[in-house]
Amino acid sequence: MKWLLILGVFTTLQAQNKQLLYGFKDIPQQILLNPGAQIDYRGFIGVPLLSQIHFNAGLTGFSAFDLFANDGKDFNQKLSAIVYNMDAKDFFGFNQQLDIFSAGFTLKTPSEKPIFISFGMYQESDAFFYFPKDYAVLAYEGNHNNLNRRFNLGDLSVNAEVLSVFHVGINKKINPKLTLGLRGKLYSSIVQASSTMNSGSFTTVEGANNSLKHIFDLDMSLQISGLSFLENSNSTNEVDVIRKRLLLGGNLGVGIDLGFTYEPAPEWTVDASLQDVGFINYSKDVKNYILNNYLEYEGIQPVFPEVVSGQTAQEYWDEVKNEFEDLFEIDSTSTSYTKWRPIRLNSSVGYNFGKKILKECNCLDKSDPTFQNRVGVHMFAMKRPNHLQWALSAFYYRKLLKGLQIKATYTVDTYSFKNVGLGVSTALGPVQFYVMADNLLDYQNLAKSQSVSLQLGFNYIFKNNEN
Amino acid sequence: MKNQQFVFRILVFFGAFVLSYSCVKDTDFDQAVPVILTPTLEVSLVQIEETPVSFLNKSGAEVLSISDAIVLELLSEDFVIDYLVKAEFIFEITNSLNKAFDITMDFYDTSNTLQHTFSIAVNNSPTNTLLLTEHIEVFEAGTLDALKTSTNLNITITLISSPTEPSLTTASEGVIALKSKAVLFLNIAE
After folding, report:
1. What confidence score (pLDDT) does residue A273 get?
2. Of these four, A95, A133, A394, B159, which has the most CB atoms within 10 Å of its CB?
């Protein structure tokens, strides 16, 4: 129980917003966020397994510190205070991404307008669940003193998936102002489990013929795929199965990313993208569990054998027993199902300023003629089972040196109103390294943080007009 | 070259800053033992509603008593045995028959050994108005253990005859009804 709680606090994290990477034009992985991003290099090769390591986790409603602070207060009192403070809209989220390989190159076309092709494969894990408030209250209080309270069984909403993604994108500068991009994706789901379409309730009311009447209205479902191999196989087998599914042997799906960058004037940049407009069809190794029953129960009615009645006590008892067995009977099927990928929207508006001007005229000057600074705002939104997750950031991007760029962000989202992030990209020759982390203010005490995000990676960049 | 050294220095600084700055302070992760939940459940128990006919035999004469056994399935669940710390059985009896009763609850285990018993005396209602009798049976310590080992509940309604009260007939007025619930106090520590 203890480890479950600790794990729960530190690994149930949120995710997906990459406000530091989005629009960081020196880092090739930004085109995974916006296929229509501006690209000013000839090509890149991501260092295999190291080009993007991303980890993001978050929770709303409380932090580990609230629960585990060494403040002499009773642990169970703190836990109960947290439980009663949270509601069914609070959630836990976790996301992890690992680029397995990625590369991109410029392709000259007969029309003289080059297009940029990028491709690769990454692995992603995503877990998300809402705080099941009514279940927690029921576990804390029971139905005593909760007469007529409708315990909402729909509070249970969880989703988890591990998948691999193969992708190919094209990016084209249509004219000096507009860049468009499109990325096609093939998803291969390794394991998936979700229970997001629950409804129903449990209510205790005053009975007509007895003190109480219990009303069970159950309408719940769980869909899982890809988990059966864990039940009957040895470890070598499991590795084989996972390897196969990583390489398109899992449940397959397709999707696209769309994006653009528009520069109405050299000082202004407007961009937006939609990611993962797509679906996965789950047909292999699928199990659907459905619980859909209704029962009103007022208690047992003894049948006094002396009383003339056609029913014996045992028969009556069997009937009650059967009613309850039927109530909790779970139907299982292996019908295939389709799920939409969680669609994500990114958009930003930026103002560029501060061109580098040399004091002396130098015709051989090879210094950077572009703007050195960009400030702007960025918006992120993502479709979650029961709500829209959002974040707003203000950012400042600065080229410090030719091989060193930084970006700082201040983000407001469901987790926090004081999220400051910093990203650094540096090139030592053609090898680029970047690292980004947010919630820096919380690094004084990580336990107080409600979300943690870290990403880093290495790339080999082929620059334009290299000296 | 100068630039590269500078870049390197900045990176080292950034890394050292994050590493030295980040820590988990003033926390004690050992306090998560045990998590205690203390829910109280209310469960509908037995309901009885009998008219005078129920207490007459085929020839129309009063019987001495009527009884039935009920399987206490819920109480034999591991969950209840492990976590139940106290139970209250709350009975509410209304009688409008001009007949006094004694309701006896006998709790038996699997080998049919009596584990616990109690009786509720119900007065007669000479004018056939509804008379309310309440009884709360509390199970704690020894009686709680008895309850946990019980698997059957035998309910016996015994008729109490008195020279001043008439015998029940098919024409007698009134009804005896029993409503009940169990309040289960759980203490779940994991």
Report:
1. 97
2. A95
Interchain pair A424, B29: CB under 8 A:
no
DSSP string for A387-411? SEEEEEEEEEEEEEETTEEEEEEEE
CA distances from A259 to A30, A110, A122, A296 (A): 12, 24, 20, 54
Q: What is the pLDDT of residues B114-158, one digit of tens each?
A: 999 999 999 999 899 999 999 999 999 899 999 999 988 999 999
User: What residues in A contact B6, CB-CB < 8 Å?
Assistant: 401, 404
Closest to A43 (Cα-Cα) out of A114, A122, A120, A118: A118
Kindly list the residues from chain B whose CB atom is less than 8 angstroms away from the CB atom of residue A447: 24-27
Mean pLDDT of B161-173: 84
Question: Predicted confidence band at A312 (pLDDT cuts at 50, 70, 90)?
Answer: low
The ipTM is 0.81
- The whole-number pLDDT of residue B119 equals 96
pLDDT score, position A12? 31
Q: Strands A286-297 and A212-225: what pairing?
A: antiparallel
Minimum CA–CA partner of B13 in chain A: A424
Choose, out of A307, A420, A454, the residue to mutate when testing the contact with B (most B CBs < 10 Å): A307
Q: What integer pLDDT is reported at residue A260 of this predicted model?
A: 96
Integer distance in angstroms from the first to the last C-alpha of chain B? 61
Select from B57, B53, B50, B42 the least CA-distant residue to B90: B42
Q: CA neighbours within 13 Å on the CB side: how many for B124?
A: 19
Among partner residues A2, A139, A401, which is closest to B6 by beta-carbon distance?
A401
Residues 6 or more apart from A235 whose CB is under 8 A from it?
none
- The letter for the amino acid at A40 is D
Q: What is the DSSP string of A271-299?
A: EEEEEEEEEEEE-SSEEEEEEEEEEEE--
Q: pLDDT tens, A248-275?
A: 888 999 999 999 999 999 999 999 999 9
- Asked if the B34-189 domain carries CATH number 2.60.120, the reply is yes
CA angle A25, A26, A28 (to 5 degrees): 85
- Rounded to whole angstroms, the Cα distance separating B76 from B151 reads 6
The per-residue pLDDT for range A21-68, each reduced to its tens digit, is: 999 988 999 999 999 999 988 999 988 888 888 877 777 777 777 777
